[in-house]
Specification:
Blueprint: H1 3-39, H2 44-80, H3 83-93, H4 135-172
Helix pairs in contact: 1-4
Length: 173
Amino acid sequence: MSETQLHDRAGRRLSALGEAFSNALCACVIAYCVVSFFAGQAGILAYRDMKSGIEQMKERILVLSGENAKLTDLRGSLSSISVSDRMVREARAIGYLRQDEKMVIFSSTAPMVSDAPRFYETEPLKAGASTGLPDRMIKLLAVMTGLAVLLASLLMSVLPSKRGSFRTTADRS
């Protein structure tokens, strides 16, 4: 082999290696941008989760403001009556009777003690960190994509030269 052929082969290999690295770098950048756009902490999926969280908070505000209005009315009605009357009403509301009194229930729709509002029934909504993928995970995915593209580019640069030699032998026969 002549020296120029060795330089040509070395140049082609170096060119193929450079092309493979540039492909891998471009794939890393593109993968990072795409994954961040869709699944990152400020991506589309996190935005949708945050939007649904805001809707849940608005619904919760409506429920709590309704309960607040009821409690304000109850407070006003309780403050307008005397202390002894209020104690009697509260005691009767939870089922106490005076001496020599009997309880008569006329229908099954009578309110029961267990029908009291359940203030702790719902779990509070948490506002905090985003639901998107952490940045480290996105970087790792981008690097893995870049490595896959690098290996594929290197493999593709080696295979065509062998394919070409197979073709020339096939054409000769």
